[in-house]
Amino acid sequence: MILIDGKKEAANLRLELKKEVLALKAKYNKVPGLTVILIGDLAPSQIYVRNKEKSAKEVGLKSEVIKYPSNVEEKTILNKIDELNKDDTVSGILVQLPLPKHIDKKKVIETIIPEKDVDGFHPVNVGNLSSGYESSVPCTPLGCYLLIKKMEPNLSGKKAVVVGRSNLNGKPMTQLLLKENCTVTITHSKTKDLKEECLKGDIVVAAVGIPELVKGDWIKKDAIVIDVGINKIDKGIVGDVAFDEVSKIAKAITPVPGGVGPMTIACLLKNTVECFKRSQR
Ligand code: NAP
Question: How many Å apart are CA 81 and CA 79, to the nearest integer?
Fold first, then answer.
């Protein structure tokens, strides 16, 4: 069994990006810029944003975090996004989710111009991805995709099962696998026999939010299993896959933590660099 080392792959990706940023600087005399808007003081959001800023600086991006109190008016955020949309030094804009209840997430997502939408959440980018056009792709499924490709460069004809259909994870994951000519089954809470569906997968991606939902006898021998879940339980942090059981059956599996998680931020940096490159064409 191969333990897919997300930390190592993310470090490799950051190193590649660092070299690319240096080359872009030499060519254009400027570097890609990432601006993160953080509203309120939720501890996990603060940690994510701090890690994003640290990683962005590490690869040489221009990084900025703009903080607002949780009672900030929606209009203030939308005006700031408008300003950043017009700022040539900003290649990518990310508004850290979740937002306070009085701020409309859809409005925020749709105000960021698609060209600077490093999260890949704007409907234009969602459409581009499903049409097979170039676009920003949500960071977590992009990270999963890169890990899968590393394990299995030729995915054509493979059966892939995606557990979960969120806009953040399951749906974009499905599109990425389809683009690779996988035969994809997307499952969700109303799926009749989840075990049966999972057993068909040469690749299984679990993005559900239920601790250790996917069991050892749900997995075909030699499948590649990608665990997106991050669940806090008494014994610590676990994924959506019962690691101890599944790791005995699978050909390769991502651990939690240390699998998909580290790739997410690295892919945010990648998206920022890609947005910059597209803006220079
Ligand atoms: P979400 O928006 O809550 O979506 C969960 C999906 O799972 C839904 O489509 C839901 O189906 C489906 N589901 C729920 N119960 C199910 C069941 N019993 N059987 C099959 N499907 C079921 O979650 P998310 O945002 O995609 O996040 C999923 C997990 O990934 C969470 O643990 C989250 O913390 C983690 N996560 C990790 C990262 C990372 O960087 N590693 C990033 C983001 C999220 P319905 O559509 O029918 O409700």
Answer: 5
Task: Tell me if the bond preceding 114 is cis, omega within 30° of 0.
Answer: no
In angstroms and rounded to an integer, the radius of gyration of the C-alpha atoms of the chain is 19
Q: Ligand 1 centre and the CA of 209: distance in Å? A: 5
Full residue range of the structural domain in which residue 237 is found: 139-260
Asked whether 97 lines ligand 1 (CB < 6 A), one says: no
Please tell me the pTM assigned to this model.
0.97
Percent with pLDDT over 90 in the chain: 100
Give yes or no for residue 185 CB within 6 A of ligand 1.
no
Report the pLDDT value the prediction gives residue 83, as an integer from 0 to 100: 98
Contact 120, 92 (CB under 8 A): no
CATH number at residue 93: 3.40.50.10860
Q: What is the distance between the alpha carbons of residues 102 and 39, in angstroms, rounded to a whole number? A: 12
Q: Residues 58-72: what's their mean pLDDT?
A: 98
Mean pLDDT, rounded, of the chain: 98
184 domain-assigned: yes
Instruction: Provide the domain count of the chain.
Output: 2
Catalytic positions are 52, 96, 119
Residues 66 and 163 in one domain: no
- Average pLDDT for residues 204-230, to the nearest whole number? 98
Per-residue confidence (pLDDT) for residue 166, from 0 to 100? 98
Q: How far apart are CA 31 and CA 105, in angstroms?
A: 29
Q: Which atom of ligand 1 is nearest to the CA of 240?
A: 32
Answer yes or no: is 268 within a domain: no
In a domain, 132, yes or no: no
The domain boundary, picked from 114, 131, 147, lies at 114
Helix (H, G, I), strand (E, B) or coil at 171: helix
pLDDT in tens, 174-185: 999 999 999 999
Assigned domain for 273 exists: no
Q: Name every residue whose Cβ is closer than 8 Å to that of residue 62 and which is 6 or more positions away in sequence.
A: 31, 32, 33, 34, 89
Contact 210, 231 (CB under 8 A): yes
